[in-house]
Design a protein that fits this description.
By secondary structure, the protein is of the alpha/beta class. It contains 11 helices and 13 strands. The chain has helices spanning 12-22, 51-63, 94-100, 103-106, 118-135, 147-162, 175-186, 228-237, 338-375, 400-409, 436-449; strands spanning 139-140, 166-170, 191-195, 211-218, 241-246, 264-268, 284-288, 299-305, 311-318, 381-382, 391-395, 416-417, 425-429. It has a 7-stranded mixed beta sheet with strand order 1-7-6-5-4-2-3, sandwiched between helices. Strands 10-11-13-12 form a 4-stranded antiparallel beta sheet, covered by helices on one side. The chain has a two-stranded antiparallel sheet with strand order 8-9. β12 and β13 (425-429) form a beta hairpin.
Length: 451
């Protein structure tokens, strides 16, 4: 059996040569600048194994995972996975892996030299163009770290645009996203107000002239569709910008942020051709209105022509503090998740707008089939009456951890426990990779778990 893992052929002589070149006697001297009190004095690790034994051990550990695959052909989905809440399982066409595994893409890093980075620059330009088409916005950057940091950057940008120092976040925004906003805002001495749903409509208290923006998630954390037109009216009546956080898959079916007057639109791009991968790396999509383009963080790739009339791609806007005077920078983001961005571009090109709509429709119908069946179970009910897309919140007859444990006994990954927000609430997600048979098994298991 040949090991699938890379072999690192550093001999003792190789290490000695590197240490000599660095001018140190031992590897420990490389860490001399770290104060002793901050160093870890040894790790409690088991004895070393041979490569063969290590592979056997890791294979055994991996076999304990009950999570189904990422929607690839041939995945065995034991009982099914119905966990979403910001990281989603969607089918990934094989062409995505084929393209991103080409060495000229996965080994590329920064495109600062356009003469040798035309391929990478073009893929960034294509992603920007597709992001604009998806969101209905005028301009998009080449990507951010993830959806949460994209929202945080959008809030800082709104403060920059308006000159205001308060940020309003609707309480139905993903709580982890709100936490990231607070973290970013703390370093800028900006205040973050979580605004309740009842306070948002125009004419009521909540959004004031002190707020730079109102951030709204559509569909929201609980899966419900927001009245985004009402949110737009409330934000703009206060002179604030409207920031929309959206699910890019939903845009195959729902109105894009540009249609309901959003000033900035952000999204987590993981759904577009990238597996869940235990939480990262991910991709933040970021777009805005034309008049705010120069305030946008990150970088923008433009298409131009050379002296011979040939198409060329260049970085046309870089507001990073590494590139311009720090006081004029709008972001210190150090890179974009370009490999993930390439996967998103390939995915969108492969499925096309009609394919994206079919995927969104499939998610919608399967989620509603699941919700209707679960709501008919004794002791279960839908927590909200609002329309939803592919996620919905269920009130359970028993504490959610008990329900989850019963589901896991049958190889089913249940939804997220949101009991801190909804009594005995579980947030379930259904996408196109969840079959009708999986949904029926979930319903049967939930019925048994209630007893």
């Amino acid at each position: 059996m040949t090991s699938p893992h890379p072999y690192i052929p550093n001999t003792d002589e190789d290490r000695r040569a590197m240490l000599d070149a660095a001018g140190v006697a031992t590897a420990d001297e490389l860490f001399a600048d770290i104060p002793p009190e901050l160093r870890i004095d040894g790790l409690d690790l088991p004895p070393a194994l041979s490569e063969q034994d290590l592979m056997r051990e890791m294979t055994a550990l991996a076999a304990r995972n009950q999570v189904p695959g990422n929607g690839q052909a041939g995945d065995s989905a034991s009982g099914g996975c119905f966990l979403g809440a910001g990281a989603y399982r969607h089918f990934i066409p094989s062409v995505v892996g084929h393209v991103i595994s080409r060495s000229e893409f996965y080994s590329a890093y920064t495109p600062y030299q356009p003469e040798i980075s035309q391929g990478t620059l073009q893929t960034m330009f294509e992603l920007q163009s597709m992001t604009c088409e998806l969101t209905g916005m005028d301009a998009a950057n080449a990507g951010m770290y993830d959806g949460a940091s994209a929202l945080a950057e959008a809030c800082l940008m709104a403060c920059n645009v308006t000159g205001r120092s308060r940020i309003a976040v609707l309480d139905s925004v993903h709580p982890a996203y709100a936490d990231v906003v607070r973290t970013y805002a703390r370093g800028r001495d900006l205040a973050v107000d979580v605004v309740s749903d009842s306070a948002v409509p125009a004419g009521r208290q909540g959004i004031s002239q002190e707020h730079a923006c109102l951030a709204v998630q559509h569909p929201n954390f609980f899966g419900c569709l927001e009245d985004v037109w009402q949110r737009e009216a409330a934000a703009h009546a206060a002179g604030a910008l409207l920031i929309a956080v959206t699910d890019p898959i939903s845009l195959g079916l729902l109105a894009p942020p540009g249609d309901y007057g959003a000033d900035i639109a952000v999204a987590e791009g993981q759904s577009l051709g990238w597996p869940v991968t235990f939480g990262g790396p991910y991709l933040g999509l970021f777009a805005c209105r034309q008049q705010y383009l120069r305030r946008m963080p990150g970088r923008i790739v433009g298409r131009t022509s050379d002296l011979d009339g040939r198409t060329g791609y260049v970085l046309t806007l870089q507001t990073r503090e590494q590139h311009i005077r720090r006081e004029r920078a709008t972001s210190n983001i150090c890179t974009s998740q370009q490999l993930v961005g390439l996967a998103a571009a390939v995915y969108l090109a492969a499925v096309g707008k009609h394919g994206l709509r079919r995927i969104a429709e499939t998610c919608y119908h399967r989620a509603h089939y699941a919700a209707e069946r679960i709501a008919d179970l004794p002791g279960y009910s839908l927590a909200f009456e609002a329309p939803f897309f592919k996620e919905f919140t269920v009130r359970c007859p028993r504490p959610v951890p008990q329900i989850q444990a019963r589901l896991q006994e049958r190889g089913i990954i249940g939804g997220l426990d949101v009991s801190d927000r909804v009594e005995n609430g579980m947030l379930l997600c259904v996408t196109e990779v969840n079959t009708r048979e999986e949904i029926d098994r979930l319903v049967e298991a939930l019925a048994e778990a209630a007893q």
